[in-house]
Amino acid sequence: MDLDLIRRLSVPADTKVVLCVLDGLGGLPGPRGRTELEEAYPQHLDRLAEQGVLGQTLPVGYGITPGSGPGHLALFGYDPLRFEVGRGVLEATGIDFPLAASDVAARGNFCTLDADGRIVDRRAGRVPTEVTAEICAALEAGVHLPGVELFVRPVREHRFVLVLRGHALHDALTETDPQREGVAPLPAEPREPAAATTAALVNSFVVQARALIGGRDRANGLTLRGWAMRPDLPQLPELWKLRAAALALYPMYRGLARMVGMDVLDAGTNLETQIEALRTHWDAYDFFFLHYKPTDTAGEDGDFQRKQQAIRAFDACLPSLLALAPNVLVVTGDHSTPAVMAGHSWHPVPLLLHGDYVRSGDSTRFTEQACAHGALGTLPAREVLPIAFAHARRLTKFGA
Amino acid sequence: MDLDLIRRLSVPADTKVVLCVLDGLGGLPGPRGRTELEEAYPQHLDRLAEQGVLGQTLPVGYGITPGSGPGHLALFGYDPLRFEVGRGVLEATGIDFPLAASDVAARGNFCTLDADGRIVDRRAGRVPTEVTAEICAALEAGVHLPGVELFVRPVREHRFVLVLRGHALHDALTETDPQREGVAPLPAEPREPAAATTAALVNSFVVQARALIGGRDRANGLTLRGWAMRPDLPQLPELWKLRAAALALYPMYRGLARMVGMDVLDAGTNLETQIEALRTHWDAYDFFFLHYKPTDTAGEDGDFQRKQQAIRAFDACLPSLLALAPNVLVVTGDHSTPAVMAGHSWHPVPLLLHGDYVRSGDSTRFTEQACAHGALGTLPAREVLPIAFAHARRLTKFGA
Question: Where are the alpha helices (DSSP H) in A119-250?
Answer without folding.
Answer: 129-142, 196-213, 236-240
